[in-house]
């Protein structure tokens, strides 16, 4: 029994979600992946743009990190589906920590899952959720859109005290037809696994528009590092604006080589607060920095307003994964999100 107790709990699949009971002061967190898993996984590997890498491509670039038995073709998917599973596995550390803090397991949903089951955001997702994390990793080409019924359900849910909608639209690399600019963007981020055009988050964009969230995810920007190291440069945080204390004991986020800039479509103010900005690598040319910008908007908070009793937070989904490393600072951010006032 002592040996067995050191094993991970058994994993289940193809199960119906069991609702979590409300516990005062303890959040029930849910992750919602906006992709159609079948559409993304079955993209033609010969396509140059707007697809995830295959696992074989990941292994080639990251060699020898995935050259152990657990990653071979007998144990792990080698196509695009394998890369999608890497994303799922990469959030397990966050899920475990959040579960320890809240006493509730983190529920994980997909818009269309591996077995083809479609789950729009409705009361099945929202009824036992206090924090809904919308991970916008659907390609724009897939044309996923938030339906009116989903928008109405989320609006009604946000009228409930203690709710938090965390929106995580991802990068938009190479959105122009100008091939010269696409190449400049590619050389800026320097990730061989990201093609010259990779546009994400159609679903989340449509949801933001419908909910009057005046933010647009743009570019894929490489963060600056501390001189002489490979460590990401500190966040520029604005503690005086950070009423929910999301940045308590947080000095840095994840180093991800192509972070979105959350462009504001309305004036910054009480209702729309940038809590954190990330310095951009000044040594790699990019249209955004050439226009005079030195930082990207990395964390935004919209406090409750009008009939909306819940909070809205915007931050990139890669800050909840371990695919790109992880630090004590990032774990502090996870704790702050999981224990946000309710």
Report on the structure:
Helices cover 25% and strands 19% of the residues. It is α/β, with parallel strands linked by helices and 342 residues long. It has a single domain (22-338), classed as Rossmann fold, CATH 3.40.50.880. It has an eight-stranded mixed sheet with strand order 2-1-3-4-12-11-10-8. Helix 4 (92-102) packs across helix 10. The longest helix is centred in the N-terminal third of the chain and has 11 residues, at 80-90. The radius of gyration is 20 Å and the shape is globular. It starts with 28 loop residues before the first strand and ends with a helix. The relative contact order is 0.15. Mean pLDDT is 95; it is low at 1-5.
If you average the pLDDT, what whole number results?
Answer: 95
β-strand amount: 15-25%
* Strand and helix order: EHHHHEHEHEEHEHEEEEHEEH
Query: CATH superfamily, called what?
Result: Class I glutamine amidotransferase (GATase) domain
Which percent bin holds the helix content? 10-25%
- Name the overall outline: globular
């Amino acid at each position: 029994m002592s040996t067995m107790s050191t094993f991970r709990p058994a994993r289940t699949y193809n199960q119906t979600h069991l609702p979590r009971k409300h516990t005062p002061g303890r959040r029930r967190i849910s992750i919602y992946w906006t992709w159609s898993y079948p559409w993304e996984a079955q993209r033609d590997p010969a396509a140059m743009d707007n697809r995830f890498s295959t696992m074989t491509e990941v292994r080639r670039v990251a060699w020898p990190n995935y050259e152990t038995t657990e990653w071979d073709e007998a144990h792990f998917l080698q196509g695009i589906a394998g890369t999608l599973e890497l994303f799922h596995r990469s959030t397990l550390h966050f899920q475990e920590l959040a579960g320890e803090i809240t006493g509730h397991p983190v529920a994980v949903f997909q818009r269309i899952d591996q077995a083809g089951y479609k789950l729009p955001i409705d009361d099945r997702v929202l009824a036992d959720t206090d924090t809904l994390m919308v991970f916008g990793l659907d390609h724009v080409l897939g044309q996923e859109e938030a339906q009116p019924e989903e928008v109405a359900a989320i609006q009604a849910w946000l009228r409930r005290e203690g709710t938090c909608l965390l929106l995580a639209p991802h990068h938009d690399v190479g959105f122009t037809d100008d091939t010269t600019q696409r190449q400049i963007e590619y050389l800026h981020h320097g990730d061989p696994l990201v093609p010259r055009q990779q546009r994400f988050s159609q679903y989340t964009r449509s949801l933001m528009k419908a909910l009057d969230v005046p933010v647009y995810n743009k570019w894929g920007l490489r963060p600056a590092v501390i001189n002489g190291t490979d460590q990401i440069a500190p966040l520029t945080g604005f503690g005086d604006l950070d009423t929910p204390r999301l940045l308590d004991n947080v000095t840095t986020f994840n180093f991800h080589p192509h972070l979105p800039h959350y462009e504001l479509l309305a004036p910054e103010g009480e209702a729309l607060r940038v809590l954190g900005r990330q310095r951009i690598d000044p040594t790699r040319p990019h249209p955004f920095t050439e226009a005079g910008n030195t930082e990207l908007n990395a964390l935004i908070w919209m406090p409750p307003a009008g009939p909306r009793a819940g909070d809205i937070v915007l931050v990139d989904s890669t800050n909840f994964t371990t695919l790109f490393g992880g630090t004590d600072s990032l774990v502090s951010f996870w704790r702050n999100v999981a224990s946000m006032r309710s």
